[in-house]
Amino acid sequence: MKKFAVILAAGKGTRMKSKLYKVLHPVCGKPMVDHVLTQIEKNDMDEVVTIVGHGAQKVEETLGNRTKYALQAEQLGTGHAVLQAEDILGDQDGMTLIACGDTPLFTAQTFQELFQYHQSKGAVATVLTAHTPNPFGYGRIIRNEIGIVEKIVEQKDATPEEAEVQEINTGVYCFDNKALFEALHQVKNDNAQGEYYLPDVMEIFQSQGKVVAAYQMKNFEESMGVNDRVALAKASQVMQARINQSHMQNGVTLVNPTATYIDADVQIGADTVIEAGVSLKGKTVIGEDCYITANSTLVDTVLENQVTVTSSYLENAIMRQGSNIGPYSHLRPQADIGEGVHIGNFVEVKKATLGKNTKVGHLTYVGDATLGQDINVGCGTVFVNYDGVNKHHTNVGDYSFIGSGSNIIGPVNIADHAYVAAGSTITDDIDAHDMGIARGRQINKKGYFDRYPVAQAAKDAETKNE
Questions:
Q1: What span, in angstroms and rounded, lies between the C-alpha atoms of 437 and 434?
Q2: Is 393 labeled as catalytic in the residue annotation?
Q3: Which of 5, 28, 88, 398 is paired with 363 by a 20 to 30 Å CA distance?
Q4: 293 and 318 in one domain?
């Protein structure tokens, strides 16, 4: 049987008090509606339609061609929203899943179980329910004396007795597709909100003598909807715990899981150790046997196997096998750190490639450069790449030596086995086996120490130390 899905993502979400549309708020690095679509996709759907309204263009830019779209120009309720998909799905035979774009915690397994239960019961409609001791704000599942679902009542329309019911509507349904759209045309808006409620189709099906079922999920936490920043934070905590547990079960050591922040799409190899305060963001990929120490941040970065990152910030960079960095260093976009390379403390690398076993120990900037293998770059070296208008590239050959305190002003080429004397400002190419030295000649001025205020300060110190 064909499987379809409709994702409701048209609401603005005024309680978020944000310029960003509600379903686009991120949970662990991914917009909420993307989480929903990702889990739905794992069920091998034949078609997915996302209902858009506020922020339609932004939602479509986020989800791309993974789904079709239908516009709900005026928000008149969930029933009205689903009806907008009729032109795409209305004439199809199959099952249709309805989910909300602000419920990022649902899993593919729960959706699969709902499909299976719906089919096993031969139902025209099945609602996914959950039990909670605090049902305020949720629609209530009203059953008759033998447990059959009679209707779903929204919070604002519930009687005092109905409001006491603790089985709630999660907002997820499975329907016979054609029957759904036929029933939606019969839904009325005579309720407190003046809206067309999707749950009202349940009573319509009941009146027609059709089977309406309810599948109660085991984990209420999955059903958490996000309507404000407080709920967003709670959802993020739940998602983070789920992500961290998955990595630990796959052989990753998290020293303090509650203080480790890993986005949903991050990949980590076995036997990697991650200390507290680490943030792994975006599409970061980490190999096996890596070690990432406290307070490091990696954004869209690749670490090959056996890489060590010590309290550093890496973005859109790659560190190859056996390399290390830190503490307190920064890899900016397009930094390519070669096998066995050592990046020490307070080093910044941007749009530069460092070859195998090259060492950049400390207090250095390497930008717009290609460095070969087995190069030593001394402390305080600056690759001067910007003339105020354009960036310029520098090449340094294998086995070369850059002395401390040097300025390498691009564009310049330093050959293999070349030497830059400490304190030089290099503006011209250096050939192989040559040394470039560019600094003022030292002159010692006899007795000049005594001419300066420091002489008196020194004399005072000597007197004090006697």
A1: 10
A2: no
A3: 398
A4: no
